[in-house]
Amino acid sequence: MTFTGAPGSTRLWVVDDDRTVRFVLAEALRDAGYAVSAFEDPRQALAALADGELPDLVFTDVRMPGMDGLAFLDALKAKRPELPVVVMSAYTDIASTAGAFRGGAHEFLSKPFDLDEAVALAARALPAAESASALPAPEMGDALVGETPAMRELFRAIGRLAQAPLNVLITGETGTGKELVARALHRESPRARKPFVALNTAAIPAELLESELFGHEAGAFTGAQKRHVGRFEQADGGTLFLDEIGDMPASLQTRLLRVLAEGEFFRVGGRELIKVDVRVVAATHQDLEAKVRDGSFRADLLHRLDVVRLRLPPLRERKGDVPALAARFLAQAANKFGAPAKRFHPEALKRLERHDWPGNVRELENLCWRLVALAPGETITLRELGSALRSEGTTSAADDWTRGLAQAAREALARGDTGLHAALRERFDQVLLETALEHTDGHRQLAAEKLGLGRNTVTRKLGATRRRKSP
Ligand SMILES: Nc1ncnc2c1ncn2[C@@H]1O[C@H](COP(=O)(O)OP(=O)(O)OP(=O)(O)O)[C@@H](O)[C@H]1O
Q1: ipTM of the assembly?
Q2: Structural domain boundaries of the chain?
């Protein structure tokens, strides 16, 4: 069962023993701005009610192994007679169950149902003042948007996998939503009430990573004044999300492998054996098989993390999701700025669908936020979009090369290379010179002027790179 959502927003419960229905329906309702809790067993829902949690609307299945939907409805109505309930049932069962529910249930939903229909039903069944459109701050931060077959397939996989205590490896280009998927796996799992702890392996200096993961005792190393509880311990009972796992230094890969195999470890400088129960969800945008082949990633660690693999398609392979994602981000941004909601002109929407999205969903999200801040009117025109996309293009190319440089440096450092500065600088010079020469059709003097260098410097640098290239 899961709990998300801001207190005070409209809270919906979904009770169904079918994981897929539970997940897909809960996501659609979250998407519409509701706070949703999902229960696989009606008795869990009744326990939450006894704990003082109050839903505004309940969706329930009829045939469930622990307690049947009719008995559940009776128990609900005994406590909350005014509570609206939507009963979901296989089409063939509707006639037989309808009589039994008469006087109790508000609405029926025959399975299989259309998600839009379910969301519309929720809006109808809720008291008018609480319908989704009237929500002041929709709880939509964590819900995954996606209607394309690829995303629906992914949602079904999340529903199936969430219950299994297996390690999962999420692959996908940067910005495709890997962290959001990891959060959904946690939220839908029996661990949902325990912590979700995220660690970006690439963002932490290698020498600190070990103590970040496993903690340290006071005095374990210079600067360690106090005991520090590591992410593994923080995530006990819950989920540890290891982002950019491909960047983990070799020595730590070995340690992580051991901890995953044994489920226990010592803090850095510690003597006490710490035992934890953690589900690890790892993510990467890199080709880990290639890293295994070139020796920079351990094959046995890959096997342990990669029990199940979820691939997140890049946005260019699911452009059908662009309009819904854009609408979500525009609404979120408007909400945050307290500004009126904006929408794209149909021509601008078409342009969005033509774009290739190298930065994936994150690029679309950033673009929408910028447009909400900058575009004057309520409708974003093709021209406004065009100039925002152009400036996005320059920043992302500029970001890309520095990111690529950082990555090259990281890999070289992890390999133990020395003399990095000279090697990378030479590569930098070479790329710059070749590009300038290409621009000036091979005219050295002109290329030197464009770059702000003397002609001799250009000749010398070219000579150096050519010499190095020839065997
Ligand atoms: N399907 C989706 N629905 C709604 N929002 C999404 C979706 N996918 C991604 N986002 C949003 O896009 C942004 C990037 O997503 P996220 O951080 O999960 O990507 P990532 O693949 O983990 O990126 P990186 O590899 O760079 O860490 C986040 O703000 C996230 O909320």
Answers
A1: 0.98
A2: 2-134, 149-311, 316-396, 418-469
